[in-house]
Amino acid sequence: MTDTKKTGHATVLAIDAGTTGVRTRAVFTDGRPSISSYREFTQHFPRPGWVEHDADEIWAAVEATLADVASRIDGTIAAIGITNQRETVVAWDRRTGVPVAKAIVWQDRRTARRCEELAPHLPTVRRTTGLVLDPYFSGTKAAWLLENCSVPPEEHLAIGTIDAWLVWKLTGGNVFATDPGNASRTMLFDIRSMRWSGDMCNLLGVPMSCLPEVRPSSGRFGTTVGVNGVPDGTPISGVAGDQQAALFGQACTLRGMAKNTYGTGSFVLLNVGHDCPEPTDGMLTTVAWDLGDGPTYALEGSIFVTGAAVQWLRDGLGIISSAAEVGPLARSVPDSGGVYVVPAFTGLGSPWWDPHARGTIVGITRGTTKAHIARAVVEAMVFQTCDAMDAMTSAAGVTLAELRVDGGASVMDEMLQHQSDELSVPVLRPVDHETTALGAAYLAGIAEGVWSDTDEVAGLWALDARFEPGSPTGRRAEWNRAVERSLAWSDDAG
What we know:
Blueprint: E1 11-17, E2 21-28, E3 35-40, E4 52-53, H1 55-70, E5 79-84, E6 89-93, E7 103-104, H2 112-117, H3 122-129, H4 138-148, E8 157-161, H5 162-170, E9 177-178, H6 180-183, E10 189-190, E11 195-196, H7 198-204, E12 213-214, E13 218-223, E14 235-241, H8 242-249, E15 258-262, E16 266-273, E17 284-290, E18 295-303, H9 307-316, H10 326-331, E19 340-342, E20 360-362, H11 370-396, E21 403-406, H12 413-423, E22 427-430, H13 435-447, H14 454-458, E23 463-467, H15 476-486
Parallel strand pairs: 1-5, 5-14, 9-12, 15-21, 21-22
Antiparallel strand pairs: 1-2, 2-3, 4-7, 6-8, 10-11, 13-14, 15-16, 16-18, 17-18, 19-20, 22-23
Helix pairs in contact: 8-13, 9-11, 11-12
């Protein structure tokens, strides 16, 4: 353990390997503003419904941003934490370190038909993994790679989520490991026994020997070897999927606390404590983290497209030229003019779980303008969050006291006020709303003695803005009608 208490300050690096890019952030304990470096990587869409990444390009972005940040800090690095897009799968040859194919991204729908074929096994899947049968999760993606790519012999094959790939690369191939939160998103992990499930591996045809070791989310995974710009021997001490990291960074460490991250998609997580809940229709049960003393569980509502719909307004329709324009454009009209946008571009997640849903725009009239469409996209973020949150609180039997928010779209005050109105609870935005990287830093720092425990990091959370609920719009019924129009639209996702 690194003794940082003697010096009174320390630096922790967090690698946030997201869906569209990598950000490395330095978190300082002496009050200095954090510094960061960001690099996008290529999105590959080889067929409708398919989304792929180049794992080597992701690693190049990690190494470049790490080197950039490390060059701008003084002193030693106490620890490195990793957070990542979760269900994305990469397979590689352990002898060469070369991926066998492009990584299959969490948004990818190619295994929809396989999930339908597995429908008789849904009770087992839900009981064992806490998940539902959907191509979103890693297991059927891994099976697809095994069936359709030239893979090495089993003893040389590694299959993991992006965190496992990065741990392997950072340690020079010495460590192949993941954390329970990422493992719980694969459809291959028993969330009660906290081990890879032989039954699920057999069902999906994924050899257990190809999967990484599962270690606590906060703890020494290994040390760096041969990483450009980073001294050898730097501890890698925290790993968490992006949404679990955001929950931790939001200091939602007590049962009943919840957060929503408005990113490419939006992910609502509700801390339900140390007891694993029974499966619930429309909701996911996931491992939030394990600090070495057993798992903390969460219920999750997964919304596939929120911020990505803003990108679509920019890149697909040309309605805006930058994402920052969507807020002012949406505010330029008093309401959406009866327009509803259901951004089911890659199917619908919680609570619908329909991989064949497709995006719809309903309620258009001759008077509809681009501002109405922009406002409807922003409102879709709100309504989708309400759908997920209502299902989660009902399932958990808890009354939501507040919702903490983060992510790129959380800068839109009007959207957050609308969210508060529709949920009828306060919405709280922290000063530091890049909580995904912050959570990874906290997990790594706790392991190395930078912070003592969860109480200390919870005390660092600071409020930027609080939105108190007003009257809801009363338009949820119309929104649900729009959602119904999008369901079961396509049969080409498999």
